[in-house]
Write a structure and sequence with these properties.
CATH topology: Alpha-Beta Plaits
Distance between the termini: 18 Å
Number of strands: 4
Shape: globular
Number of domains: 1
Strand order of the largest sheet: 1-4
């Protein structure tokens, strides 16, 4: 499972993460900022992280928690 975070202080709202995501995880907000709208669709390909010129997108692998 992957966790997506955006460092808002670094993000310049260029839209590259929105355009390059093959699963359309991001949408564009009212201020042209990227919104993580469907995080469960993320496959962990890291295209958004690799293409971000400001290094504002961070993908982290997390272990799934058991529901015991």
């Amino acid at each position: 499972m992957t966790e997506i975070s955006i460092q808002r202080k670094w993000c310049k709202s260029c839209g590259i993460c929105v355009e390059f995501c093959p699963k359309k995880v991001f949408t564009v907000g009212e201020l042209n900022e990227p919104i993580i709208s469907t995080p469960d669709a993320c496959t962990g390909c890291r295209l958004c992280e690799l293409r971000c010129p400001e290094f504002a997108v961070i993908i982290t692998e997390v272990e799934e928690r058991s529901h015991e």
